[in-house]
Design goal:
CATH architecture: Alpha-Beta Complex
Shape: globular
Helix content: 25-40%
Strand content: 15-25%
Radius of gyration: 17 Å
Number of strands: 11
Order of helices and strands: EHEHEHEEHEHEHEHEHHHHEE
Structural class: alpha/beta
CATH topology: putative 2-phosphosulfolactate phosphatase
Low-confidence stretches: none
Largest sheet: 5 strands, parallel
Mean pLDDT: 94
Number of domains: 1
Strand order of the largest sheet: 7-2-8-1-9
Oligomer: single chain
Length: 250
């Protein structure tokens, strides 16, 4: 078995992920927002690489059923209905809607993963079902890649922590003796060991977490650190993320 962790999508070539099962992580905040939105009744989420692409995509959709959402430098894009705070994506706002989402890091990572056999969006809020799906993929194909969104093409500790927690959960009995891992996976395991199961501690320690708190999004950190509150499995295919609900373990 093989698990690779990539700390950013920068430098990834199509061949690195082609035919593989891939988990994409942007804990602060796109992955969390996607899971929350789908759990709260959004029909689908369409990732966009830029503000301009988001506007083009939305123009081809039925106006009454689409919402533009996204951020630049953590702040809602001017003229968009929603930003990237999971607290905005309530059932009343997103129920039955298709959301076109453009973010600084998360949607870029998702688009970079296109060409993979399967793409799962992972966060703390849906951690249990992601573990189940990733374990199934690993047992079936013996291969899994975890792609961290990072922060503006650089390492982000909150995503690496999530990758480490996931990797730890996927290690078979016998641990690293029975699985091949790259350096990214080894490093993420050490980060997970350092923070243990304390999601919020990792988020508050991160540069992006501190930035969000300073901008007034401190409550978002609590939402993003809440494990298994929205057990929905977001799968990305054909430029659309849709929900696949699955029972949690136990």
């Amino acid at each position: 078995m093989k698990i690779d962790v990539f700390f950013t999508p920068a430098g990834l070539s199509p061949g690195d992920l082609a035919g593989r099962a891939v988990v994409v992580v942007d804990l602060l905040r796109a992955s969390t927002t996607i899971a929350v939105a789908l759990s709260n009744g959004a029909r689908a989420i369409l990732p966009a690489a830029s503000t301009e692409e988001a506007l083009r995509i939305a123009q081809n959709l039925e106006r009454d059923h689409v919402l533009l959402a996204g951020e630049r430098k953590s702040v809602r894009i001017e003229g968009f209905a929603l930003g990237n705070s999971p607290l905005e994506f309530t059932p009343e706002v997103v129920g039955g809607k298709t959301i076109v989402l453009a973010t600084t890091n998360g949607t870029q990572a998702l688009i970079a993963a296109q060409g993979a056999r399967e793409i799962v969006v992972a966060a703390a809020v849906n951690f249990g079902v992601v573990v189940q799906r990733a374990r199934s993929a690993l047992e079936t194909s013996g291969d899994l890649a975890i792609v961290c969104a990072g922060s503006e093409r650089r390492f982000a500790i909150e995503d690496a922590f999530t990758a480490g927690r996931l990797t730890k959960m996927l290690l078979p009995q016998g641990g690293l003796k029975r699985v091949s891992v790259n350096d990214g996976a080894l490093a993420s395991l050490e980060i997970a060991r350092h923070f243990g199961e304390k999601w919020l501690r990792a988020l508050r320690a991160s540069a992006h977490g501190r930035e969000l708190a300073a901008l007034g999004f401190g409550q978002d950190l609590t939402v993003c650190a809440s494990q298994d509150t929205h057990p929905v499995l977001p799968l990305y295919a054909d430029r659309r993320i849709t929900a696949h609900r699955a029972p949690q373990e136990g």
